[in-house]
Amino acid sequence: MTPDVLVHPQFDPIAFAIGPVAVRWYGLMYLLGFALFLILGRVRAGQAWRGMSKQDVDDLLFWGVLGVIIGGRLGYVLFYKPGYYLDHPLEALMLWKGGMASHGGILGVITVMWLWSRARGKSFLKVADFLVPLVPLGLAAGRIGNFINGELWGRPADPATWPWAMVFPQANDGGVPRHPSQLYQFALEGVLLFVILWLYSRKPRPAGQVGAMFLIGYGLLRFIAEFAREPDSFLGLLAMKLTMGQWLSLPMIALGLALWWHFGRRTTSAE
Fold first, then answer.
1. How wide is the angle at C-alpha 182 spanned by C-alphas 145 and 140, nearest 5°?
2. Is residue 5 part of a domain?
3. Residue 62 belongs to some domain of the structure
4. Number of structural domains, the chain?
5. Lowest CB count within 10 Å: 144, 182, 196, 236, which one?
6. Is residue 3 part of a domain?
């Protein structure tokens, strides 16, 4: 390792402690994501044509948190380690041991949105269109949490080509410079996707198209970022040298494109 190569700062995962209670940076990032959801959701609820109230935003946050936790955990169990958890089913409940999947979290949020919409007599498509632009900044906050923890690092990178390549001591790989892929995902599926969806949803769109745009955008940007992210050690690269994250993203892109076209065509036909 040359002296010029960046090294991950190895932040203390505990931001501060109050007596015996330790508050971790990763938990603070979740709180930041929830706070941004509330603030921006209330801004959107102030526009009457969206058909949502500030109380609806509060309710959706509560149910969305449940969807993220349950869906994220089930996604990790079913998509990444089904064999292991089939042999150790009780460990699927041990959230403190880690193991969450973004794709599963998205499916969990979609499920609770559908249930909430039915219970409130609202259009699921319109609820989804209202909600999805609020999601990317939460994803961005989570990726910053990953970077602070020094986890989910990227693939090896040549510092001569990638001057921001960084050694992650947590990888225990002898000091190999790697892509800080957590920051790539923060920028792509977090900040960039938020800007795209926020601008796209500034005016009324055919019901369902904003939600479809989320599926396209997240799937595509996650697919791109995965080229820089180190594959999970217990899975490696799968068929066609793609990661599990990329294979899970491809159906999202295809479904999003089909739905975006369908909702636009349905509205045109109705006119």
1. 60
2. no
3. yes
4. 1
5. 236
6. no
pLDDT of residue 81: 87
Residue owning tokens 């526009």: 47
| Distant-in-sequence, close-in-space partners of 204: CB < 8 Å, separation ≥ 6 | 49
Alpha carbon separation from 174 to 59, 151, 169, 182, 212 (Å, rounded): 48, 16, 8, 20, 43
Query: What local confidence, expressed as pLDDT, does residue 91 receive?
Result: 85
Q: Is 24 exposed, middle or buried (0-12, 13-18, 19+ CB in 10 A)?
A: middle
Structure confidence at residue 226 (pLDDT): 97
Tokens 């007599």 sit on residue = 121
DSSP-assigned letters across all residues of 206-242: STTHHHHHHHHHHHHHHHHHTTTBPPPTTT---GGG-
* Predicted local confidence at residue 1, as pLDDT: 47
- The pLDDT, as a whole number, for residue 180 is 98
| CA–CA separation, 131 and 57 (whole Å) | 9
Strand partners, 17: 22
What single-letter DSSP state applies at residue 77?
A: I
Helical axes 54-75 vs 102-120, angle rounded to 10°:
140
Can you give the residue range of the structural domain that contains 232? Answer: 22-270
Burial 233-245 (b: 16+ CB within 10 A, else e): eeeeeeeeebbbb
Q: Which of the residues in the chain have pLDDT under 70?
A: 1-3, 267-271
pLDDT of 267: 63
Residue 152, exposed/middle/buried by CB under 10 A (0-12, 13-18, 19+)?
Answer: middle
Residue 100 domain-assigned (yes or no): yes
pLDDT of 271: 45
pTM equals: 0.90
